[in-house]
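Example 3.2
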Amino acid sequence: MIMKWATAISVAAMSLAATAPADDLLLRPISPEYAKRWLAPQVPTRLFGNTYLVGFGGLTVAVIRTDAGLILIDGAVPQAVPQIEANLRKVGLSIRDVKLILSTEPHWDHAGGLAALARDSGATVLAGAQAAPVLRNGGRDAADPQAADLATFPAVKTVRAVRDGERIRLGNVTVTAVATPGHTEGSTSWQWQACEGKACATVLFASSLNPISSDSWRFSDHPERVSMFRRTFARFRQLPCDILLSAHPDQSGGDRKLAALRAGARPNPFRDPAACKAYADKHEALLDKRLREEAGR
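Structure, written as tokens:
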């Protein structure tokens, strides 16, 4: 069913934190020293057709331009919000034109900035059904494999839960929610079409598939989580996927592809119909390695 909506790393990280007003709780930095690894400055870039990258070297934030406003995907950390909004301006866009914000997972590195971005834009945040309540409570999820180590983040007040396979339409663009649980139970990837003239591509913004946990949590003690991952890996291998973006770009080679794109590489280095299969294969191998390690302890 289609739902229609109204229309230098440390230096960079310190700069992001410095731009946040001291009394703005939604921009209060989370683990600023740790987060520096993700916040390398990145020149905002039109990736293909209606799709732009407006995030950072270690965190992907994307925006889709429609004829009825903008769709933003992921929100990075709170201290990154001013730079995300500045990056939008650099490509001729405005946070005030964002109508929808899509969330891949309720972890602080991808969802920490959502509350501020939703406030500044007036947009509705969309998330998977299992992720929505976690966003509303600021990241508290006792069932999460990383629960013992995760920081909380500003609660997102306006969240609409979406179903697997649900199509969300804004203007001339339709985005499909793809449930990809494992890393978190509510992890959701997002799929849409982008075109340049008559050349079109299916773009997939993938949630993290990394099988990591707190030290005391064992995947071998949670066969339901392992099965969750296996189903997601199998699904990824079948997804239409001409262009893959991953929440952490280095997990899919997105950092290298962007450098090549900006250097003028042609054809577009992001166009790779085997990218989603490779992404699944890489992370299933990591899960298998983790299970072997646990069996040897």
